[in-house]
Amino acid sequence: MLRLAMICSLTLALSTSFASQIGKRLAQQSRVPVSGVVMNEPELDLRAPQTPYDDYGPNVKMNQDATTRRQNEITMCAWVQNPNIVMGGSNDYRNGDASGGFYVSTDGGATFSDALVTRGPAGVFEAAGDPVAAIAYNGTLFANYICFDRTTDDGGLYVQSSTDDGATWSAPLVIAEHIGNPTPDFEDKPYACADIVPTSPYVNTHYVSWTRFYWLGGSPIYFSRSTGGATPYSAPLRISSSDGCQFSCPCTGPNGEVYVVWFDYYTGMIQLDRSFDGGVTFGADLNVASFNDVWGIPNPCGTFRTPSYPVITCDLSAGPRRGWLYLSWASDNGSDPDVWLSTSSDGGTTWTAPVIVHSTTDSWQWWQWIAVNPVSGDLGVAWLDRRDDANDCLYRPYATISQDGGVTFAPEFPISTVMCDPTITNFLGDYNGAAFRHNNSFYYGWVDTRNDVGDAYSTWFRLAPPAPQNLVVIRDGNGARLHWNSVEAATYEVYRSDLPGGPFVTLVAATPDTFLTDPTAVTATDERYYQVVAVED
Q1: How far is CA 527 from CA 12, 473, 475, in A?
Q2: What CA–CA distance (Å, rounded) separates 195 from 135?
Q3: Span 58-86, mean pLDDT?
Q4: SS (HEC) of 352-367
Q5: Is the pTM of this model over 0.70?
Q6: What Rg do the C-alpha atoms of the chain give, in angstroms?
């Protein structure tokens, strides 16, 4: 069964009442931002019980450590064959300096376990970070991260994989490595994806793009792919013509296409490159849209860094927009940042004029991520938002969904009741992440300061299906009879509570009828509240 999203239902009562050495050197060399985990050295969920009509789930802490050290820079992904398998990650400082932390849920994000906290090859590096999670069609989990020292110029880019939902992991595999080199390049800010289309000629291939800071200056985008051979990953391939790039993001198309976007700081443009042979070769860079980096405007509250970044994703559903590309980024509007979106229906050759995805433009909206549901083709967008604080300081995540290819968006809504204070730390990471989920919904992960200087939190969010109309409850002896008008739904779920705000329990898990009897005994003074939910196949 596919539930359409936030459940709008009717309620009626029976009664009338109711910085490292590397970082310092690179910062002096380049105006392109270096990864925050390299530059920054280490240093009560209040939601009510969930009711069936919530449009987002519980706020769940993914990292399970008991320390008050920070986790930030959140990544999210889900398994296309079973989106109850979801993987998150963060810069994880539980062991002092940063590690690549990865967390796995097997129950749709209700609970998480610590799956991997790593600094790469044992005993080699002082720190790790920039975590990236991806899951292939066959269920293989990939954990990408950079490793580095704060006292030397050693560093590298690594990946580990798991074929048992994160219970065990491979040894770190090298994508790029610099140890003992007196003039090493620095590998920074990877992002990754896996081909999840079963008919693709490159299904299950894992793709990684990142920024390489040259020792002598310059920061082009590089790319590597899993090969399955004796050398697990291909030799790093430069794919950007510009030397002033950062924040790359790859995705795949329905026929095995590979798309990579990044910021070109020399031109102020978001650029795109494409491969049609599984990442072996790429074409010419294409300019897509201009951006004004949020990092370039004053932060009204806090000293944490606020870089912009582009995110690209593709519709892999069987719907009418199969193959459409979506590109999102945050950009300064002259006084504060907004979240923008552009779409392409021709494989990235042409793009629509950018639009703002939210209705409020007089406060900060930043650190967005987007995902397309591979069943419905709906587009989910979530970001951090300061609109609910008159001082434009505290933040919480907001979300919206588009069901028409980014032409219109549902009214945005908060997906956490907790406002976070960013002033308690000088580093919140550089990005947050989102992923598709079952039941036409989405996951979003963000850095949350409700407990300490930062934890990796996540939730799911969804839209409202048509609500059953004209719910009528009539006393029937010691029980009650319910009936309602039908809507376009295969079945209905019915919930009951003795309190108007819940918690609600399931009365009927699924019925095709628009009527039923609740035989549960009630007295003349009892109150009983009901909710009817429409569910589609």
Answers
A1: 9, 12, 11
A2: 9
A3: 97
A4: CCCEECCCCCCCCEEE
A5: yes
A6: 24
